[in-house]
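Please, structure for the following, as C-alpha coordinates.
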Amino acid sequence: MADGCANEIMAIGAGHRAREFAAGASMIDDPGVRKVLRADSLELFDGVPNMPVFEWHSPSNPLIPVDAIVNTDRRYCAAGVRLQRDMNASPRTSLRRGARYAVGTGLGGCAFTG
Protein backbone atom coordinates (compact mmCIF):
# COMPACT_ATOMS: atom_id res chain seq x y z
CA MET A 1 0.00 0.00 0.00
CA ALA A 2 2.99 2.32 0.44
CA ASP A 3 3.06 4.99 -2.27
CA GLY A 4 -0.30 3.75 -3.61
CA CYS A 5 -2.81 5.97 -5.36
CA ALA A 6 -6.08 6.85 -3.62
CA ASN A 7 -8.08 4.16 -5.44
CA GLU A 8 -5.54 1.47 -4.54
CA ILE A 9 -5.42 2.55 -0.91
CA MET A 10 -9.21 2.63 -0.63
CA ALA A 11 -9.59 -0.77 -2.30
CA ILE A 12 -7.03 -2.36 0.02
CA GLY A 13 -8.32 -0.56 3.11
CA ALA A 14 -12.07 -1.11 2.59
CA GLY A 15 -13.59 -2.78 5.61
CA HIS A 16 -10.45 -2.36 7.69
CA ARG A 17 -9.30 0.06 10.35
CA ALA A 18 -6.25 2.30 10.07
CA ARG A 19 -4.68 0.47 13.03
CA GLU A 20 -4.47 -2.69 10.90
CA PHE A 21 -2.08 -0.96 8.49
CA ALA A 22 -0.26 1.62 10.58
CA ALA A 23 3.23 0.90 11.85
CA GLY A 24 2.18 2.45 15.14
CA ALA A 25 -0.83 4.08 16.70
CA SER A 26 0.86 7.32 17.71
CA MET A 27 -0.78 9.38 14.97
CA ILE A 28 -4.19 7.73 15.41
CA ASP A 29 -4.18 8.40 19.15
CA ASP A 30 -2.60 11.85 18.92
CA PRO A 31 -4.98 14.42 20.50
CA GLY A 32 -3.98 17.03 17.92
CA VAL A 33 -4.84 14.74 15.01
CA ARG A 34 -8.15 13.75 16.62
CA LYS A 35 -8.97 17.44 17.15
CA VAL A 36 -8.41 18.18 13.45
CA LEU A 37 -10.52 15.20 12.38
CA ARG A 38 -13.34 16.30 14.70
CA ALA A 39 -13.09 19.87 13.38
CA ASP A 40 -13.39 18.61 9.79
CA SER A 41 -16.40 16.39 10.53
CA LEU A 42 -19.77 17.49 9.18
CA GLU A 43 -21.45 15.08 11.58
CA LEU A 44 -19.83 16.71 14.63
CA PHE A 45 -20.03 20.31 13.36
CA ASP A 46 -22.94 22.04 15.12
CA GLY A 47 -23.77 24.50 12.34
CA VAL A 48 -26.31 23.92 9.57
CA PRO A 49 -26.48 25.19 5.99
CA ASN A 50 -28.56 28.30 5.25
CA MET A 51 -29.45 27.09 1.75
CA PRO A 52 -31.07 23.99 0.25
CA VAL A 53 -28.87 20.89 0.12
CA PHE A 54 -28.76 18.05 -2.41
CA GLU A 55 -26.95 15.10 -0.86
CA TRP A 56 -26.28 11.82 -2.61
CA HIS A 57 -24.49 8.68 -1.55
CA SER A 58 -24.56 4.93 -1.79
CA PRO A 59 -26.11 3.16 1.20
CA SER A 60 -24.07 0.07 0.31
CA ASN A 61 -20.57 1.53 -0.20
CA PRO A 62 -18.12 0.23 2.40
CA LEU A 63 -15.74 3.16 1.81
CA ILE A 64 -17.99 5.90 3.19
CA PRO A 65 -19.34 6.49 6.72
CA VAL A 66 -23.04 6.01 5.92
CA ASP A 67 -24.16 6.41 9.55
CA ALA A 68 -22.42 9.79 9.75
CA ILE A 69 -24.21 10.94 6.59
CA VAL A 70 -27.61 9.78 7.89
CA ASN A 71 -26.99 11.51 11.26
CA THR A 72 -26.02 14.73 9.48
CA ASP A 73 -29.10 14.57 7.21
CA ARG A 74 -31.37 14.09 10.24
CA ARG A 75 -29.76 17.01 12.08
CA TYR A 76 -30.14 19.26 9.04
CA CYS A 77 -33.77 18.24 8.61
CA ALA A 78 -34.57 18.80 12.29
CA ALA A 79 -33.13 22.32 11.91
CA GLY A 80 -35.45 23.04 8.97
CA VAL A 81 -32.88 22.80 6.17
CA ARG A 82 -34.46 21.95 2.79
CA LEU A 83 -32.69 18.69 1.99
CA GLN A 84 -33.06 16.38 -0.97
CA ARG A 85 -31.29 13.07 -0.68
CA ASP A 86 -30.61 10.60 -3.46
CA MET A 87 -29.28 7.18 -2.50
CA ASN A 88 -27.93 4.98 -5.28
CA ALA A 89 -26.45 1.55 -4.79
CA SER A 90 -22.71 1.39 -5.31
CA PRO A 91 -22.13 -0.37 -8.66
CA ARG A 92 -19.72 -2.91 -7.21
CA THR A 93 -21.80 -3.83 -4.18
CA SER A 94 -25.10 -3.79 -6.06
CA LEU A 95 -23.78 -6.11 -8.76
CA ARG A 96 -22.34 -8.44 -6.16
CA ARG A 97 -25.61 -8.60 -4.25
CA GLY A 98 -27.80 -8.59 -7.34
CA ALA A 99 -29.53 -5.40 -6.23
CA ARG A 100 -30.83 -2.97 -8.79
CA TYR A 101 -32.32 0.06 -7.13
CA ALA A 102 -32.17 3.79 -6.70
CA VAL A 103 -34.02 5.62 -3.99
CA GLY A 104 -34.69 9.33 -4.17
CA THR A 105 -36.03 11.01 -1.04
CA GLY A 106 -37.01 14.66 -1.06
CA LEU A 107 -36.69 16.25 2.35
CA GLY A 108 -38.35 19.58 2.92
CA GLY A 109 -38.02 20.90 6.47
CA CYS A 110 -38.62 18.02 8.87
CA ALA A 111 -40.06 15.56 6.40
CA PHE A 112 -37.16 13.19 6.93
CA THR A 113 -38.18 9.68 5.96
CA GLY A 114 -34.96 7.72 5.70
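Residues 66-78 form the longest helix (13 residues). Residues 93-114 have pLDDT under 50 and may be disordered.
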